[in-house]
TrEMBL record:
Protein name stated in the entry: Uncharacterized conserved protein YjgD, DUF1641 family
InterPro entries tied to this protein: DUF1641 (IPR012440)
PANTHER family per the UniProt record, alphabetical: DUF1641 DOMAIN-CONTAINING PROTEIN, PTHR38433
One Pfam family named in its UniProt record: DUF1641
UniProt organism field: Fictibacillus solisalsi
Amino acid sequence: MAKAIRQIKKEGRTREEEQAEAVAGIVRELADNSEAILTMISIVKNLHEMGALDTLSALIEKRNDVGVIAVQQLNKPQMHKTIKNGINAFNFLGTLNPDQLKTMLSGLSKGMERAADSAENEETPSLWQLGKSMRTPETRATMAMMMEFLQGMGEGLNEVPRHNK
């Protein structure tokens, strides 16, 4: 009669086999994601060339000192106002129609170019020339837009309760 099996002998993998399997898995992942890895290497190379990695490394080494300084700066009353103003600025930008803003900024850019040119000219226009320029379509369009802007701003100011100090 056969003997009863009392012990099962497991054939485990050796440490070398486990390491070889891990290395094979890493190589497989490198091959599958080679484009992303090469891009990452390029980014790290550029960061190293511009000195950003040294700066980041120093910041990490001195993280406690940097953290203390950052908290001290954030606790200043001016910083609270700066943060609130930044949030309000982003909220304001979110309310603007991008097409209208593009039109306004384009006009502002051209106006600044002309203002810079006239400043270089150093010739002050006479009152007659200023009055004459009021009749041009460009000046009239600008004045009409500015009047609408001023009226809208006045409406907004009247909606906000005033605090007399």
